[in-house]
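Task 17 of the worksheet. Students: predict the tertiary structure of the chain below and write it out as structure tokens. Keep your answer in the requested format; marks are given for formatting as well as content.
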Amino acid sequence: MKERVPFVKFQTRVRDEAVSGNNPYRWQEVTSDDYFKGKRVVVFSLPGAFTPTCSTYQVPGFDALYDQMRNAGADEVYCISVNDSFVMNAWAKHQEVQNLKMIPDGNGEFTRMMGMLIDKCHLGFGMRSWRYAMVVNNGEVEAWFEEPGCNNEGADSDPYGETSPEKVLEYLQQSM
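Model answer:
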């Protein structure tokens, strides 16, 4: 049996023209089922919004390869991070994201249940996600990619390569 992604309720902010003022957004609860049920999706997780590797390589890379991933059988590409919806929305705007869907895991609940929550308090980051990616098919993990050396306090390494968009795309193309 393949591992299922955990059921989590994510607190998101969505644009709503019915909301007046400078901040036309409202809260919307979105569940794991909303994101994963009946879909084959790519999910990549990273330590944090606005951080160097995430902003320079991961988000732009996955955004640029979005169409190719879709052509290789992915219905969507999601970026998840232990950041709240305000931060994820601001980061997507700053990064000029065109295609990715951002998932705010503000409390780190999904990340913890995936076994990827790490302690980076020694860097002033608090609890964060280790860098991983996966292909999820109807709520089940089909393929898993993880950077080596998952660690809490101690080594400050931030490896990047195994979870690159190119590696995920290669898997998708080979699994067609």
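Marker's comment: The mean pLDDT is 94. The domain at 9-174 is CATH 3.40.30.10 (Glutaredoxin).
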